[in-house]
Amino acid sequence: MEIYQIIKRPIITEKSTLAREELNEYLFAVDRRANKIEIGNAVEVLFKVKVLDVRVMNMRGKKKRVGRNIGRTRDWKKAIVKLEPEAKIEIFEA
What we know:
Shape: globular
CATH superfamily: RRM (RNA recognition motif) domain
Number of domains: 1
Helix content: 25-40%
Distance between the termini: 29 Å
CATH topology: Alpha-Beta Plaits
Structural class: alpha+beta
Radius of gyration: 15 Å
CATH class: Alpha Beta
CATH architecture: 2-Layer Sandwich
Largest sheet: 4 strands, antiparallel
Low-confidence stretches: none
Strand content: 35-45%
């Protein structure tokens, strides 16, 4: 799998901002087929930082209703990437 297909987008929420400031952890939405090793390598290559730890979670899609019809959003995978203490990703800092 190509590194540009593994990491889909950063997750920027209040909780992820606190994790970034206090624990130096960054959150990403990643491809559901990617494993921890592939995610860590992709972050290291794309952002040129040293990754210490990767944790992943499979997130279930939410139920959505439009009129009488009930559907669901897609299932997706979230990755929490912990970096070295002095490492930063510039895209989050802007």
